[in-house]
Records
---
Amino acid sequence: MGHQAPDVKKISALIKVLNGGIEFYQEGVEKIKEANLKALFGQMIEEKQEAVASLQGFAVAEQGHTETQNDFGVEIRSMYTKLLGNFTSDMAHTYIEQLEEVEDKVLQSIDDALEVKQPTRCATELRRIRTRMQQCHDQMKWFKTESEKRRLSPALSRTS
């Protein structure tokens, strides 16, 4: 009796989250003014595009075609950010805050895919991508923390 390799699972769902993140970052690049954030968002887009490209072969193995759709939850977060943008003077903070949450969702989606038995090549690629996406998450978390400090500093100086 031959040994059968495990089937690829949960890769298409991960690609949808990554695609949603790419689109959301692209929107952020268009909406914010800060050059440093535009560069950061561009880097995040490139990282996610590279991850999607490296996973598409596994998506074909999983579902018979490449994945081009976005995750609905990421799309909702994007719409929410647009709505918030109508009521805030700090659009950059709004995008940073929401995109950091998208990074959380990316990591969770990778972890979900790693929790099931994957073919060795797929699991290896997922672990490589997880390392890069953790770095993206950590960068966004740092920017979120700094943005929150910046927003609080005028209020703190008034109370002193």
---
Amino acid sequence: MPTLMTQPNFVETTIAEPEIRETLENILGEQRSGVLATSFMDIPLCSQMAFVTSHDLRTIIIVTPRKTAKYDNMSSNPNVSFLVSTARNDPSDPASAQALTVTAFATELDGERRHKAVTLFSRKHPNLSAFAAASDSAVMELKVDSYCLVNNFQQLTRIGLG
């Protein structure tokens, strides 16, 4: 088990760094859900969400019914964050788990872009394909602004898209 870092350590890099890109691909590819954070009138709301990431890691796709607080929140304030964690509720998590926070701008997709997003989402979540394709479901594109990776307890890496 790695030794926990007791002092915060901060590094900046870009998605073009091969080791960082591989880490992002592993976390985002292996995890099936994350936590969406939205806000309305400074009142935060967190929602567990299934997701899929585009190949270039610049877009995250989520699907939600339109008649939800999270949809209303994204409609009025499209600035969101999305947390993906590898934690397993295990005592080793502080040393071994990774948490990836994404800052993004949410937009509802329509037309051909919606169709492509539903196809991509359904490949990762075949059990949710009917939900994703339903006309009353909003297919949301989270346009990534940046990533922030925390591992080894306090090792923080801010990752720009470069």
---
Amino acid sequence: MFTRKIHRNGSTVYWILQWEVCERLEINQVWFFVSVNCTRTLLAIILLTLQCWRRLYDTNFVSVFGKNSKMHLGHYILGFLHYTACVLTILGGASNFSMTYPSKPVLQWVDLNVMDLFATYLFLWAWWHQYKVTVILANLRKDGEGKFSVETALLSHWWYQEKFEDYPRNRKIIFPCIY
């Protein structure tokens, strides 16, 4: 029989997962450390919440949908599971969810390092550009009925032909190889 020596500095979720891996692979020792502090966890939850609120705003006030368009139930369930899994993953790696966490969690912004700040900046940059793309795509549906605006595609095509000499003259605009 194998003896297991598991360091429980990790969270409950990771501890259970590594125990299962040990059982299935018959490994006698696992060393696992989680270095996510409470401040990083809070930052990740704030950024995820910001993303969820922005996507809700995009869906309700920016995007243009067709009058008869419907969302497939499978896509809805997949989206729900995605965001649920994101939250569980963030909380699962948090040290305050550890089985042996010694004291009350302390939130200190000085716990964040340069990599955390860079990752936050990168997230916010991508977050803003995703919003801009959503606005651009919504503006392509100028008729308000959710139909793709052919006029916009034609105008863009003609503008490219006018501004760029090496733009292919025989390029198809709407349907590749057809029109």
